[in-house]
Amino acid sequence: MKKYTVHLRYYIGDPLAEIRQEDLDRIGKTHGVEIFFEKIDNRTFDNGIMKEETLGKAIEEITQDVITVASGDETLFREAILAIYERYRSPRTAYGFWGSSKDGQRVAKEIAEETGGGW
User: Fold this and answer.
1) Which residue ranges make up each domain of the chain?
2) What does the radius of gyration of the chain's CA atoms come to, in whole angstroms?
3) How many Cα atoms occupy the beta-carbon half-sphere of 60 within 13 Å?
4) CATH code for 4-115?
5) Helices marked H in the chain — which ranges?
6) Backbone angles phi, psi at 64, to 5 degrees
7) pLDDT at 68 over 80
8) Residue 1 above 80 pLDDT?
9) How many of the other CB atoms lie within 10 Å of CB of 21?
10) Whole-model pTM above 0.70?
């Protein structure tokens, strides 16, 4: 059985709305998939300026919101990704799916291409 896993990496200003755990819980329950949320914030406020040093850092250490979706069923997985894109839109960068399984990334990209991903 295939396992579909995708990490949707949203950087500052990417999602249409603030990503909320309760929204993701509802989507996961509705579509029968596992959804995890991680908020990574490594910015600092210095002399009135919000900044972050990203040079030389791993992609996983840079400020971002990461939604991880996992399922063994492609149809349920596809429906959950679509619901996330409708709420927040798809990630926009080349690194938006970094760390995903091959099949998970393929499905997430297909949906973004089919729907425009909200952009």
Assistant:
1) 4-115
2) 15
3) 6
4) 3.30.70
5) 21-31, 74-88, 102-115
6) -170, 165
7) yes
8) no
9) 11
10) yes
